[in-house]
């Protein structure tokens, strides 16, 4: 125990603080790492080794006397092993962190590998010297004296009046720190999703930690040098009160520096996941790190005071129990508050969205801060800009949304330059061509890619966490799916209303024609025959009645398409394009697979008719909107028909000027997109201004 209550209390408190945090970091890193490779083993082992050192340090601080003799010099040497090993471990961990472990293609790989080999050799030599100095003079080891004693005497020879051990350790420490800073200065390219951003933001923390470790090593060398030259009396190291005070102050400064290094490493590890290998940081890990800091601080201060004041063990146990209960109560309270905050954030997503009102009315689109998309971007993600852009079949039913309101929606061409993969959570995109967004989250359903969630930087310039990205993906998929369902339901309601109105009109017209036109003609013909008039007059009246009935039947909507039944779907489509749009295009190209007629015959009657009418509407739109007055080149239309085992695919593409969003949402396309969905298929539209328009119809085939 050092003299002075305040000094002893501070030393024990800081030592316990370092013990708890270092052990927590080591175990957390090991348990949360994606892959427990050699780098993870060394990093976790380094944290645990440092924690074990502070365990022995705390025990030494609480011992009754501080006197080292030749008999216990071995234990002193063992206690100094972490002091020798940790600088080397720090360099190796940063070497692994900078991705120079396996990146053999990097131009700096071999130079850094040679430096690692040199540092490993120096570290091994330092350990050997430490072991030689620590071997005690006992009879069982007397046979080693001819080798040990000359080496020990050589190690103890001074250089310029300074012990060789102190000089060598300073050189070794300086080398490890310089190599660590060099690895941080030029790291290799990371294959991790946010690895470069995490490295760039964590680098200042790691650089400061390396410099603090250098300062720790310098202070350790100074205090060891001072102790060797000022406290040795014969074969013993005797410490008086003044010596203990001096060493205690050095010890406190070193422990505080190590505590600062520990906090810096914990912040880098939990805020940026620099060691665990996770794609994104996690809110939970950063939250647990703050709680570990609170626990280590409280436990160190309270238990340090109790042990320094010499309380009986029973009181120390009771104080520990009180502290653990208090911490558990605070943890429960904080967890409940976090749950309340989470519920407030989730309330816009679980509250009623008034879909029934949306089905029976058509409210105006206004900015609503309780809207789930607005709440997601503003409250949950804290995003500066965000875009929810549907693609594929859902683009026919869902409007793209931007945050803040009024943002121009970017096109999907640049955001979809990476291959679609439902295993990839996110990918980086160019903010210059994506409205300020830097990340693209792919949204999926059972039918494939349904949209993209584009995110700009956080408002506070922090990194998105793993939980936030998962929430953005799940919520984006839910928003698109819900909006598509509501839009489809609204269109079905409109179609039903139109069908009911049309049915009523046709019924009234049929009744009127039969009652006002046909029946009087038949009655007149009957009266003519009964009156003995000429047969020609009766026949003329009957012919007029026949014509009225015929006209009425022609005006009634047909339930089937005669061309499909007679020519088949492909033949009916070709005839429709040739007859109705013969003058609309300069050239029409058909790309049909062999046997496509037989495959198209597997479509149900409803599916075939739906594909037929949707194709006619798309070709009509191309004929009407694809050509511009300033266009000189010929307008070409390409229709490709393919069929697999389960799906019929028809693609219509023209080289026109493209279409505007309001054209894509017109009544005709909306109607046929809805009919395709009713029949079990889908319609997707894609357009590039002044280049092309492509539409794709998909319809499942019967087994």
Features:
14 strands, five-stranded antiparallel beta sheet, Heat Shock Protein 90, Beta-Lactamase, five-stranded mixed beta sheet, alpha+beta, 703 residues, 3 domains, elongated
- Biggest sheet descriptor: 5 strands, antiparallel
Question: Between the first and last Cα atoms, what is the distance in angstroms?
Answer: 86 Å
Uncertain stretches: 66-72, 363-369
Rg, rounded, reads 41 Å
In terms of structural class, how would the helical and strand content be classed?
Answer: alpha+beta
Instruction: Please report the total strand number as a whole number.
Output: 14
What's the arrangement of strands in the largest beta sheet?
6-5-9-8-7
Task: Please bin the fraction of helical residues.
Answer: 55-70%
Report the total helices.
21
Number of domains: 3
What percentage of amino acids are in beta strands?
A: 5-15%
- Mean pLDDT over the full residue set: 76
Shape: elongated
Quick recap of the structure?
The chain is built from 21 helices and 14 strands. It has 703 residues and is of the alpha+beta class. It has a five-stranded antiparallel beta sheet, covered by helices on one side. A five-stranded mixed beta sheet has the order 10-11-12-14-13. Strands 1-2 form a two-stranded antiparallel sheet.
């Amino acid at each position: 125990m050092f003299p002075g209550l305040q000094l002893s209390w501070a030393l024990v408190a800081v030592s316990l603080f370092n013990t708890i945090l270092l052990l927590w970091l080591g175990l957390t890193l090991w348990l949360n790492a994606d892959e427990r490779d050699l780098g993870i083993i060394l990093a976790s082992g380094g944290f645990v080794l440092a924690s074990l050192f502070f365990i022995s340090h705390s025990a030494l601080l609480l011992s009754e006397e501080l006197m080292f003799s030749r008999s216990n010099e071995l234990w002193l040497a063992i206690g100094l092993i972490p002091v020798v090993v940790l600088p080397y471990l720090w360099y190796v961990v940063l070497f692994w962190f900078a991705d120079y472990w396996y990146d053999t293609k990097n131009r700096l790989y071999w130079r850094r590998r040679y430096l690692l080999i040199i540092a490993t050799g120096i570290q091994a030599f330092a350990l050997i010297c430490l072991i030689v100095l620590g071997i005690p003079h006992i009879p069982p080891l007397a046979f080693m004296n001819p080798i040990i004693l000359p080496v020990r005497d050589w190690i103890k020879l001074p250089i310029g009046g300074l012990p060789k051990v102190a000089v060598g350790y300073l050189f070794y420490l300086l080398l490890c720190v310089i190599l660590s800073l060099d690895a941080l200065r030029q790291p290799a390219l990371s294959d991790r999703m946010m690895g470069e951003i995490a490295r760039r933001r964590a680098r200042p923390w790691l650089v400061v930690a390396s410099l603090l470790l250098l300062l720790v090593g310098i202070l350790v060398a100074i205090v060891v040098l001072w102790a060797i030259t000022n406290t040795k009396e014969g074969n013993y190291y005797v410490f008086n009160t003044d010596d203990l005070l001096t060493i205690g102050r050095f010890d406190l400064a070193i422990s505080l520096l190590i505590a600062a290094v520990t906090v810096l490493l914990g912040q880098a590890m939990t805020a940026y996941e620099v060691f665990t290998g996770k794609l994104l940081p996690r809110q939970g890990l950063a939250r647990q790190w703050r709680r570990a800091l609170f626990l280590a601080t409280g436990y160190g201060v309270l238990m340090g005071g109790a042990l320094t004041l010499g309380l009986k063990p029973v009181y120390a146990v009771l104080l520990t129990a009180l502290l653990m209960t208090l911490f558990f109560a605070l943890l429960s309270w904080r967890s409940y508050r976090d749950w309340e905050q989470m519920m407030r954030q989730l309330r816009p997503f679980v509250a009623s969205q008034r879909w029934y009102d949306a089905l029976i009315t058509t409210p105006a689109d206004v900015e609503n801060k309780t809207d789930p998309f607005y709440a997601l971007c503003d409250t949950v993600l804290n995003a500066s800009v965000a875009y929810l852009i549907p693609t594929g079949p859902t683009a026919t039913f869902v409007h793209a949304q931007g945050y803040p309101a009024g943002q121009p929606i970017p096109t999907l061409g640049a955001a979809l330059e990476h291959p679609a993969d439902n295993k990839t959570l996110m990918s980086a995109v160019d903010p210059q061509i994506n409205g300020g967004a830097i990340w693209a989250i792919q949204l999926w359903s059972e039918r494939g890619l349904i949209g993209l969630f584009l995110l700009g930087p956080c408002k506070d310039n922090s990194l998105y966490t793993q939980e936030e990205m998962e929430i953005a993906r799940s919520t984006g998929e839910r928003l698109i799916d819900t909006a598509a369902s509501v839009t489809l339901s609204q269109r079905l309601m409109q179609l039903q209303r139109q069908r009911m109105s049309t049915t009523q009109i046709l019924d009234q017209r049929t009744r009127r024609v039969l009652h006002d036109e046909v029946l009087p003609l038949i009655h007149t013909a009957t009266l003519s025959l009964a009156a003995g008039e000429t047969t020609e007059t009766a026949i003329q009246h009957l012919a007029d009645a026949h014509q009225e009935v015929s006209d009425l039947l022609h005006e009634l909507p047909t339930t089937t398409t005669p061309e499909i039944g007679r020519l088949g779907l492909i033949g009916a489509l070709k005839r429709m394009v040739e007859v109705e749009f013969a003058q609309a295009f300069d050239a029409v190209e058909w790309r049909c697979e062999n046997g496509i007629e037989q495959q198209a015959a597997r479509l149900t009657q409803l599916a075939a008719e739906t594909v037929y009418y949707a194709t006619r509407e798309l070709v009509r739109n191309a004929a009407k909107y694809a050509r511009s007055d300033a266009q000189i080149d010929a307008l070409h239309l390409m229709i490709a028909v393919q069929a697999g085992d389960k799906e019929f695919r028809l693609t219509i593409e023209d080289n026109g000027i493209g279409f505007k969003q309001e054209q894509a949402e017109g009544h005709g396309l909306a109607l046929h997109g809805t009919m395709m969905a009713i029949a079990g298929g889908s319609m997707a539209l894609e357009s590039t201004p002044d280049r092309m328009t492509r539409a794709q119809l998909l319809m499942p085939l019967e087994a």
